[in-house]
Amino acid sequence: MNDKLYIPNNFIEDVKSYLPSHLAIDDFIEYCKRPLRRSVRVNTLKMSVNDFKQSCLERGWTIAAIPWCEEGFWLERTAEEEQTLPIGNTDLHLSGCIYVQEASSMLPPMALREALSGNPKVVLDVAAAPGSKTTQLAALMDNQGLLIANEFSSSRVKVLAANLKRMGVVNTALSHFDGAIFGDYMSECFDEILLDAPCSGEGTVRKDEHALKNWSIESNIDIAAVQKQLIVSAFHALKPGGHLVYSTCTLTPIENQQVCQYLLDSFPGSVEIVSLHTLFEGAEKATTDEGYLHVWPQIFDSEGFFIAKFKKLERVENSNQKTKKGNFPFSPAPKKEKQFFDNLISNQFGLKSYSGNLYVRDKEVWLFPHEATELLEKIKYQRIGILVGTTHKNGIRLEHELATTFGHLATKNTYALSQSQAIEYFKGQDVTLEENTKNKGEVILTLCGAPIGLGKWQGHKIKNSLPRDLVQNGNLISWG
Ligand code: SAM
């Protein structure tokens, strides 16, 4: 219990004015003071849920299933392990097999799950960093189709990019704009859209005790003005028949129901609410009369969250459409270069196919998702797909992300690291082998069964090719 938690009185008075009648304000305050349960999501691009469960058994981790997300689990470790080895330094985390994500934050992507199945989709994540939901969407899309992940803050774009790399995501394009541009520059381009909006964060006090420090209704109103712009723009960017999920980690109707009502009033007859009351067993406990999910901390013992889902019923004219100026700096890879690359990965790793198109810029060789082709000129991107190689005078040097995203398909030159070897690898050192090897060239390294990067066979060791910005320090992987 955090009895020192600061909850302003005017906030409590405000909450009382909209708390549903079946909930009690004292429970709300009590739950705000309780420590948040740790939860993780299994990244099915790297590990199956069954393998994760087995792995938890072996290490004595206690898990409990999160009812709304098959891949989500509340997780407990011993106090000693918690103290000695941060979860971010465990092998399951470093290898990208898990993402530490608050349970209720798994809900917005789940509201799109059904729509993302079937044919590859073109999806927009309007406010994406640090990427918990982007990586969840990419896993739900099975790394197929195209997922444009946008983020307005430049420092947060870097964190987003790092998380996508760790999780082995290949189907994204990153952009760095005010999310309000998409309606004008990419009108009716997306099958599905998530707008996990910037908000006042009233639902996050259990994680961040300062969340309510500067709370005021005036700031709720200011943020709601931004949210209204973003939701209207997102709706313009959505194809007819597509879905828009709007979510926040705040509680006030000013940033939730009223923003949704603004959308409904702006496009009468062109939009309808899709009720979320059957999203999972028990969802009705948090469903509003309109069909939105208003998750109070005391309902599922989680953070507070709000999720709404809409369907676009028909085309909507946008008279303010704009086109990007400036050149696109990539060109499709010449046939000879593509042939060279294909032979290289086939000979070295037995990789016979990959989805996407190769593009080049100066010496870099990139793999773009197929579905990006028609959208390349619409906006400027920070990066598209993954960097798979760099050309030099004797050919192409393969890059880290080729291994982390396609390594699971390799049939030769792979090597499963032991715990001590993995520690060497993440610390940026060469990996010691027990016996001399005659193998030559590059090798894909795996940990917990998942590909984590490249090395080079070299006699009694594997030369480390981990990009320098990914090198880790401190206590890694083992704590015993
Ligand atoms: N979806 C993210 C996740 O699950 O990891 C969390 C997103 S957070 C709630 C909202 C994000 O919106 C912040 O990273 C913030 O920097 C970004 N943001 C703020 N204003 C924005 C704008 N006008 N357009 C796009 N993103 C914006």
TrEMBL record:
Signal peptide: none annotated. It catalyses: cytidine(1407) in 16S rRNA + S-adenosyl-L-methionine = 5-methylcytidine(1407) in 16S rRNA + S-adenosyl-L-homocysteine + H(+). The keyword Transferase applies. Pfam families: Methyltr_RsmB-F, Methyltr_RsmF_N, Methyltranf_PUA, YebU_pre-PUA_dom. Gene3D superfamilies: 3.10.450.720, Vaccinia Virus protein VP39. One of its GO terms (molecular function) is RNA binding. The keyword RNA-binding applies. Keywords: Cytoplasm, Methyltransferase, RNA-binding, rRNA processing, S-adenosyl-L-methionine, Transferase. Its EC number is 2.1.1.178. GO terms for biological process: rRNA base methylation. Its main location: cytoplasm. S-adenosyl-L-methionine binds at A127, A128, A129, P130, G131, S132, K133, E151, D178, D196. The active site is at C249 (nucleophile). It is found in: Cytoplasm. Residues 28-313 form the SAM-dependent MTase RsmB/NOP-type domain. It comes from the Bacteria. One of its GO terms (cellular component) is cytoplasm. Specifically methylates the cytosine at position 1407 (m5C1407) of 16S rRNA. Belongs to the class I-like SAM-binding methyltransferase superfamily. RsmB/NOP family. This is Ribosomal RNA small subunit methyltransferase F. It comes from Pseudoalteromonas xiamenensis.
